[in-house]
Amino acid sequence: MAAVARWSLAHRWTVIVAWLVLALAGAAAAAQSGSRLSFAFDLPGQPAYETNEEIVRSFGSGGGNDPLIAVVHLPHGGLSSSAGQKGLRQVDGLVREAVPGARTASALSDAADASAYVSKDGRTTFVVVYPVPDFTSSDPYTTALPALQKSLAGTRVAGEPVHVTGASVLAAGGSSSGNSVLVETIFAGVAALVVLAIVFGSLLALLPLLIAAIAIPTTFVGIYGLTYATTMSTLVQNIVALVGLGVAIDYALLVVTRWREEKAAGRSNRDAVVVSAATAGSSVFFSGITVTVSLAALALTTVPFLRSIGLAGMLIPLISVAVSITLLPVVLDAAGSRLEWPRKRPPSTVSRLWTTIAARVVRHRVAATCGALALVAALIIPVVSLQLGQPQAAAQATSASSEARAGLKTLTDSGIGAGVLRPTEILLPADRTITAPGRTTVIHPGTWSHDGLRIAAAWGRDDAFSDAGKETLNQLRSAAAGVPGARVGGTPAQDGDFIDALYGSNLRIIITVIVVLTLLLLSRALRSVWLPIKALLLNAVSLAAAFGVLTLVWQEGHGSSLFASPATGAITLWVPLAVFALLFGLSMDYEVFILTRINEEYAAGHSTDEAVVRGIGHTGRLVTSGALILFLAFVALGGVPQTDVKILSTGLAAGIILDATVIRGVLAPALVSLFGGLNWWLPTPVRRLLRITPIRPHTNSGEGAPTVPVREGSPQGR
C-alpha cells in the first residue's frame, strides 16, 4: 500500500482528475440508470412463479399481484333486498369503468358462489378487482388504484362509504413513496458529519464524507454498465447509497486517524501519509475484500434480484478502497495539516475510555466473556421461533391510509377475515373445478375463463401468513394435486417457493463460499488461523443476536409499539438474507481494524494483554464512531412507511451497534486475551499455502518498541 500511496503522490493530478471525472460520470449514470432498474422479484423455475406468469399471460392480471378489494356495507336484508342489489350493482359498474380490462368478481357477477362474498350476517360484501398490472413501477397498481379510489369516492351504500383496501395498499403505508434514496443519504450524511466533527474537532471531518461523495457516484458507473448485461433491481440504489456511505467513511476514518497518530509521533506530513497507507491502508484493503466477498456471494443465488444486489454490492467496497488508498493520501499530503483547523491542542491518538474498558476486560477476561455470552445468548434464544413470511395485514395497517385500514377492519369485524386480501389462485382446465378443503372458501367466476383455462381463487378467514393461513395453503395444494392439470399460484404459494429458493440447499453453498474465502483472506491478512476462526464465530454470534432482536421486536411485538406497529407475526422473507450479507461484511470490517492493530502491537514486542489494551485503545473510538454513523444511516433507511423496510433497518441498526460494542468491544478482546499465544497459531501447511510467515514479536517492548518500517519494499509497505 505504501507503493500505491507513493505512486498517487507522484501523479497527484492524474489521480484527482480521474476520480473527479468518474464521480461526475457516475452522477450522470445514476440519473440514467434509474429507468433501467427492475422492480420485479422474479423466481424463474419455481412452480408457483411459473404458474403466476402463465396466469398473467393468459388473463392479463393476477398471479403474483394480489387484488384490490372494494368493501361494501349492505342495508338490512343484504343482497336479498333491492336496495342491497342496487348498491352493489352501482359499485360493480363504477369499478369496471374505473379500471377497464380488470378481472373482477362479486356476489352479483358470480351468482353460483354468491355466498362466498357475503358475511354471515349478510351486511358486508366485497368486490374482487384484479387490474392490469403496471410493471414499470414498484407498485403494480400505481395507476389503477388512484382511478378506483377516485371513482368510488363519495359513493355510499346503506349510508356507508365504500372502502378500497388490499395487500398492496396496506404495504404501501398510505404513501405512494417513502423517503427517497437521496433523502435517506442526505440525512445519514448530515448525521455522519456531526459524529465526525466530534471525533476530529476540525475540518478533517469533511474528508471521510469527501471519500464517500466520490465512491458512491462512481459505483453507479459500474451499475449502469451492468444494466446492459443483466437485470438489476431497484434495491441496489439503497444498498450502494447507505452501505457505500458507511464503508467509505469507515475506511477514511481508519486512514486519517492513523495519519494523525503518526504526525503526533513526530513524523513529517509526507512520512505520516506513507505510514498510514502502509498500515491502515493494508487493513482497509483486506476489509474491503472481505465485504466484497460477503456481498458478491449473493451472485450465486438463483434469485435474480439478489444476484443483482451481489453484483452491485461487490463494487462499492472495492471502489471505496481504491479511493481511500489513492485519492485520500493525495488530499492529506496537500492539505491535511491545514484541515486540522480550528483544533487548538494536539489531537489525542488514543481513547482513554476504550483503553480503560480494554484494561478492565483483560483483567476480568473470564467474567467479561461469560457476561457478554450471557447477554447475546438471551438475544439469540428467540431465533428458534423465527418465522419467515410477509408482515400480516394488521401490522401493515397501522401505517396505511385510513381508508385501507377501514376496509380491513370491516372485513375482519364481519367475519370474512384478512385472508381474502391475498388469495391463492389455481389455474385449471376449463372443464375442471376444485372443492374447497376444510374451512376454505373457493370461487370459480364464470368470467374467469379463457382459451381452455379457468382460474379459481381460494382463501381462508385468517391472514395468509398466519399459521392458520399457511395450513390453508397446504390444504389447497393437496386438493389441487387431486385435480388433473391444476396448478397452484397466487402470492401465498409464490412466497412459499421464495423461501425454498432463498433458504434451500443454495444457501449452504453461499455460506460455504463466504466462510472459506473469508477464512483464507483473514488468515493471510492476520497471519493466523485461530484469529480468523474466532472472527467467523463471533460474526455468527453477532448475526444470530441480530436475528433474535428482529424476532423479539417485530415477530413477537416486544417493542414494535415504538414504531406504532403491532407484532407482524413473521419476518419478511428476504430480510434475514439481506441482514446476513450486509452485517457479515460490515462487522468483519471492525474485526479486521481491531485485530490488525492488535497484531501490530504484538509484533512490536508487547505481550498479548498489552497488545489487546493498546489495540483497543487505538481503534475503539474509530469502531464506535463508524458504527454510530452506520446506525444512523440505517435509522434513516427506516424512515419509510413500509413495514418490511422498517424490519430490515431494525435488524441492521441493532446488529451494527451490538457488534461494535458487546461483540468487538468486550467479547473479542476478552477471547484474544484468554487464548494468549494460540491467537497466532499458523500451521506449516497453511503457511506454505498462503505464502506467509508467522508473526514473531520484536525483542524490544514498551513505548520504545520499533514502529512499522515504511521503506520501499518492506513487508508492511507492500
- The helix content is 55-70%
Alpha-beta content class: alpha+beta
Q: Give the biggest beta sheet.
A: 5 strands, antiparallel
Q: Outline the low-pLDDT stretches.
A: 700-718
The global form is elongated
Please report the distance between the alpha carbons of the first and last residues: 5 Å
User: Whole-number average pLDDT?
Assistant: 86
What topology does this entry show?
Blueprint: H1 2-10, H2 12-33, H3 47-59, E1 68-73, H4 82-98, E2 103-105, E3 124-130, H5 144-152, E4 156-157, E5 160-161, E6 163-166, H6 167-171, H7 181-200, H8 206-226, H9 235-264, H10 269-296, H11 304-335, H12 352-363, H13 365-380, H14 393-396, H15 402-414, E7 424-429, E8 441-443, E9 449-450, E10 453-459, H16 467-481, E11 487-488, H17 491-503, H18 505-526, H19 530-555, H20 575-603, H21 608-637, H22 643-675, H23 684-690
Antiparallel strand pairs: 1-3, 1-6, 2-3, 4-5, 7-10, 7-11, 8-10, 9-10
Helix pairs in contact: 1-10, 1-11, 2-8, 2-11, 3-17, 4-5, 7-9, 7-21, 8-9, 8-11, 9-10, 9-11, 9-20, 9-21, 10-11, 10-18, 10-20, 12-13, 12-21, 12-22, 13-19, 13-22, 18-19, 19-20, 19-22, 20-21, 20-22, 21-22
Describe the protein's architecture and organization.
- Helix 18 packs across helix 19 (530-555).
- This protein is 59% helix and 6% strand.
- The longest helix has 33 residues, at 643-675.
- The protein is built from 23 helices and eleven strands.
- The chain is an alpha+beta fold and 718 residues long.
- The model is unreliable at 700-718 (pLDDT under 50).
- The strands form three sheets. Strands 7, 8, 9, 10 and 11 form a five-stranded antiparallel beta sheet that branches. A four-stranded antiparallel beta sheet has the order 2-3-1-6, sandwiched between helices.
